[in-house]
Design a protein that fits this description.
mainly alpha; Growth Hormone, Chain: A
Length: 390
Amino acid sequence: MSLLISQLRSLPRPFWILVGATFVNRFGVFVWPFLTIFITRHGNTAAQAGWAVSSYSAGAFGAAWLGGWLADRLGRNVTMALSALGSAACMMALSQAADWRVLCGIAFVTGLVAEAGNPAGNALIQDLVPPEQRVTAFAVQRFAINLGWSFGPAVAGLLAEGSFFWLFLVDALTSAFFGIIAWTYLPKGTRTAAHVAGWGHAWASIRVNRPFLALAAACLAVSWVFRQSVTSFPLHFERSGLPTSWCGLVLALNGVMICLLEVPLASLTRTWPVRIMLALGYVLMGGSYLLLTGNTTLTFFVLMMVVFTTGEMFAFSRQQAYAASLAPEDMRGRYSGFLSFAWSIGGIVSSIIALDLYETSPDQVWLSSAILGGVAAVLILLRRRASSSV
């Protein structure tokens, strides 16, 4: 415990400001866990809801390129602020839409704006924190995200019983708060000169970085797995006949476990082989969905979330630290953006195909998730790292 406290005290003040603002912002992520329910309640089918959700991922696809470039060229804080304030406006527009085609258009813009800040946030942590502390730092960041997540969905589930509008309003307000804090209190971080800030220079580096390309391919597979937790899973929960408020509580279990366990686990295991832990995490995340095969009782929903979260804790803080160890200092924003690009492709594919597949056979969605978790693990284990800085 004393070692953990010492590690936390050594993290810089701007990092803690980012963590605090992130908590508030993620507490207010009310909309996305219930978006498929919101869309289907307006008379749209699950497949049409899938197109709307995939439109968000399509916007995020563009955000990965835009946000990565802005983070390196304009600065981390400016990029995060513009993204968060734009996201607030988009949330309010989304709340007024009902037809799935209109929802698709607004969701695309929302994804483009809201996700553009992610590469900047990851790059800022890499700027602020030395390599030997990054596993702990990313675990702390995820603690803040999931502390908000542990309370947010539970509150959102209760609000959704009355009116979905409140979900959009609170989401918008917390995004605006984050934008103001980022603009006012966070540093610009490492900036790149204009003549080398383009994607051409970054791609020349990425295409010969085989360990990083293997990680990006693994993220492509895992994005399908992770996306089911906020699309097919809530829909399956509702169709099981269980109350919507209970769905919020089960989703909140993910955040509670991460808040209680991930930072201590990251501190205790930070010297363990990174790729092995990543692979184990990916397998557990994908395999957790097999517990839903033929089962619609609350017990199996809870068990699935426990196994899924265990895998997430093993994998995700290490995933960011591993990616940081592979990125050149002057390309951190674009490298982070490239990973976001991989996640976006997976999100687009999974949102369209998985929800459509769900209408045919939910069990096929769960089986495909388990297989893709295994594929991601193999991709990580087959590639040897060029260095060992994490």
